[in-house]
Amino acid sequence: MTEGATANSGEAALRRTGGRYVEPGGEFTRDQRYIATRITADGGDGWPVEPGRYRLAVSRACPWANRLVIVRRLLGLEGVLSMAIAGPTHDRRSWSFDLDPGGRDPVLDIERLAEAYFARFPGYDRGITVPAIIDVPTGQVVTNDFGQMSLDLSTQWTAYHRDGAPELYPQRLRDEIDEVNGVVFADVNNGVYRCGFAGSQSAYDRAYRRLFDRLDWLSDRLAERRYLVGETITEADVRLFTTLVRFDPVYHGHFKCNRSKLTEMPVLWAYARDLFQTPGFGDTIDFDHIKRHYYEVHGDLNPTGIVPLGPDLANWLTPHGRGELGGRPFGDGTAPPPPPPAERVDPAHTPLR
């Protein structure tokens, strides 16, 4: 399955537009060019699944990378697929590992993610995006096709899933999951960007209506069912959650998605809190990194670079009541253990303390 390329990575767009995210007069069009190489159990593309061989590069700010962080946590792949965490902002050149001592990733020994891209593709002229998976022995990027990457963690890395790992992409539900993912990507995941990066009033109006029409559809769908597809958490819930959790801190104001806050949409707000309070979801969220990324990087939308102090985060921990709808988060499986100490979110950046 293929989706659009990461908008909030933005390097290709920045080079193309001289530092602007918004092209005056037009609609936002997502770059859909990927490194489509896959890491598979049979190594069909030349990159077989091997524990310890690869490193997942992410930023906690990025919703697309956040998907991979959640899936990796739920499946218990921390011990076989290590993770490099870039800082929340980037410049025109690349994401950088400025959170690490000396500003270098300790495993890849690089300062910027671009180094891994250029190691495989000298002169690479597309977006240096997260998430990406890097081959540690060669230092080369393998793939940044984030839509396929999360599905492959579920279907190709099964030999290394933890005991009790949930089925996030069960065979019997894949058609329905794919269908839901398709409309959620087009209208919600990408829809907030279509609003925020619209270059004309008419483009914004269309994107705004499309976004909230789909959110209303999702509210109706989730009013009497706990999860989007089936009775357990699936890939579809992961993909919707990473947009919802950013809605009030960023998209409502910064991207002008302001018909309603998430907290004013009762069904979706309860659904988002249910997932946030589920191990593997809320414990991956760094609200400070999320806000700093959008408000500091998108200089044409927020030229002062001022990062809002709100919203209050304590309400993420209030009761959601979704358990009354039934369903079991992990099916016949179990919740993941707490994240490794080195991967825990700064307690000051999340209400989960």
UniProtKB/TrEMBL annotation:
Question: Region Disordered: what ranges?
Answer: 1-22, 318-353
Task: Write out the entry's keywords from A to Z.
Answer: Transferase
Domain GST C-terminal, first and last residues per copy: 170-297
Q: Per its record, what are the GO molecular function terms?
A: glutathione transferase activity
Q: A cellular component term (GO) from this record?
A: cytoplasm
Q: Where is the active site?
A: 62 (nucleophile), 193 (proton donor/acceptor)
Q: Could you tell me which Pfam families the record lists for this protein? A: GST_C_2
Instruction: Site Lowers pKa of active site Cys: give positions.
Output: 251, 294
Q: Which Gene3D superfamilies match?
A: 1.20.1050.10, Glutaredoxin (3.40.30.10)
Binding positions (glutathione): 95
* SUPFAM superfamilies the record matches: GST C-terminal domain-like, Thioredoxin-like
TM segment ranges: none
Write the protein's name.
Glutathione S-transferase-like protein
According to its UniProt entry, this protein's organism is: Salinispora tropica (strain ATCC BAA-916 / DSM 44818 / JCM 13857 / NBRC 105044 / CNB-440)
